């Protein structure tokens, strides 16, 4: 009878012990949701803090990583733990580099995290591109407005370019190798930049250029000192020049001589200059006697030639008194009246008067003024 009771008591004790352990186990076990970079799983843990859970799951975090709630937070059943790893993001924005740490998993998410927009910008990776834990290097060329002055007009351009040259290419504005661009093509762009293009063109031309002749004087003792005679007329020469002309926006700015050659030489003009001293003359060129010398020869000369001893009339009359050459020679004159002094011309006029009277001149009546 006692044996049965003992067995029963032991059995009851064992059952009781098992019941207490089950209650304790249930009380210590917690169900936790763990999200690591968006990857979520449910786990059971006996840990008492978030750090215990991470250690148990071999999730290592660094100072820049984000853990929510913090690693020291106490665990409760049903807790949710989020871990976001920090990633290095190197941004090169319009040529200027900066480094950041982000927990976002995409480029777009990183921009939002950093408070950046860059609307219309050109990116070296798409906005939806993922960012691995090793990080990402991203080039950003922001949208800029610039004015391009060219070909007589101004073109407004929106470009996601880094340099002036890239912007012109995007705008499909063509350039020749010798065009002048200001600022230079390699200049980094800023919003509002003004670009000026000057079109440069060169042409090569062949020109005919006159070569002037020289005037050579030769002494001639057969002529009086106040006389000259053309021995040979001068002739203009000719040379060919090849020149290169540079234009900027249609305006000629420079001419460079490339080559030249003489086609025809100039021929010098030769003029004989008298050296013979003219004999002295009396009064108005010599007296012929009588009333002839007292006539008003100055009034006649003034009417006939304006008092000019070198006057030439196209109808073949010369000098103070407008002699024809035949009449001049008939009274002993030599050469052309205009090659003789005023006194000599007056002397010959007096001889003509004695020979033929005042009717030889249309102004003859002025002799009696």
Structural commentary:
With 369 residues, the chain is an alpha+beta fold. It has five domains: 32-85, Ubiquitin-like (UB roll); 87-141, Ubiquitin-like (UB roll); 144-198, Phosphatidylinositol 3-kinase Catalytic Subunit, Chain A, domain 1 (Ubiquitin-like (UB roll), Roll); 204-274, Resuscitation-promoting factor rpfb (Resuscitation-promoting factor rpfb fold, Single Sheet); 283-368, Lysozyme, CATH 1.10.530. It is 21% helix and 36% strand. The protein has a four-stranded mixed β-sheet with strand order 2-1-4-3. The chain starts with a helix and ends in a 13-residue tail after the last helix.
CATH topology of the largest domain: Lysozyme
Radius of gyration: 59 Å
The residue fraction in helices comes out at: 10-25%
Spans with pLDDT under 50 lasting ≥5 residues? 1-21, 280-284
Distance between the termini: 200 Å
Number of strands: 20
Q: Helical segment tally?
A: 7
Share of residues in strands: 35-45%
- Let me know the largest β-sheet: 4 strands, mixed
**CA-based shape:** rod-shaped
Q: Averaging pLDDT over every residue, what do you get?
A: 88
- What is the succession of H and E elements? HEEHEEEEHEEEEHEEEEEEEEHEEHH
CATH class annotation of the largest domain: Mainly Alpha
Which CATH-level-2 architecture of the largest domain? Answer: Orthogonal Bundle
Number of separate structural domains: 5
Organism: Tenggerimyces flavus
Pfam families: DUF348, G5, Transglycosylas
Domain G5: 197-277
Protein name: Ubiquitin-like domain-containing protein
């Amino acid at each position: 009878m006692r044996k049965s009771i003992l067995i029963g008591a032991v059995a009851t004790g064992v059952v009781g012990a098992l019941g207490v352990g089950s209650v304790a186990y249930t009380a210590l076990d917690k169900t936790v949701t763990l999200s690591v970079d968006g990857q979520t799983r449910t786990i059971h843990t006996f840990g008492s803090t978030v750090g215990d859970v991470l250690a148990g799951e071999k999730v290592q975090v660094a100072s820049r990583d984000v853990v929510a709630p913090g690693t020291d937070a106490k665990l409760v059943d049903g807790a949710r733990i989020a871990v976001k790893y920090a990633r290095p993001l190197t941004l090169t924005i319009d040529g200027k580099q900066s480094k950041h740490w982000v927990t976002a998993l995409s480029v777009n998410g990183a921009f939002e995290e950093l408070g950046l927009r860059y609307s219309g910008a050109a990116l070296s990776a798409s906005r939806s591109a993922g960012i691995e834990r090793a990080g990402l290097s991203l080039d950003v060329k922001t949208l800029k407005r610039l004015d391009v002055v060219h070909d007589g007009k101004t073109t407004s351009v929106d470009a996601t370019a880094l340099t002036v040259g890239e912007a012109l290419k995007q705008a499909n504005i063509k350039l020749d190798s010798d065009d002048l661009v200001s600022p230079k093509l390699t200049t980094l762009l800023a919003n509002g930049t003004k670009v000026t293009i000057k079109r440069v063109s060169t042409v090569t031309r062949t020109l005919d250029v006159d070569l002037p002749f020289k005037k050579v004087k030769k002494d001639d003792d057969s002529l009086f000192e106040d006389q000259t005679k053309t021995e040979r007329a001068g002739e203009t020469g000719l040379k060919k020049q090849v020149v290169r002309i540079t234009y900027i926006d249609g305006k000629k700015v420079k001419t460079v001589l490339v080559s030249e050659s003489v086609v025809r030489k100039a021929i010098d003009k030769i003029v004989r200059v008298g050296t013979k001293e003219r004999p002295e003359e009396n009064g108005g060129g010599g007296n012929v006697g009588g009333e002839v010398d007292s006539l008003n020869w100055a009034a006649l000369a003034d009417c006939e030639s304006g008092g000019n001893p070198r006057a030439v009339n196209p109808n073949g009359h010369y000098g103070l008194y407008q002699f024809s050459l035949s009449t001049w020679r008939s009274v002993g004159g030599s050469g052309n009246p205009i090659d003789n002094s005023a006194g000599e011309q007056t002397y010959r006029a007096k001889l003509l008067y004695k020979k033929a009277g005042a009717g030889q001149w249309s102004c003859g009546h002025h002799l009696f003024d």
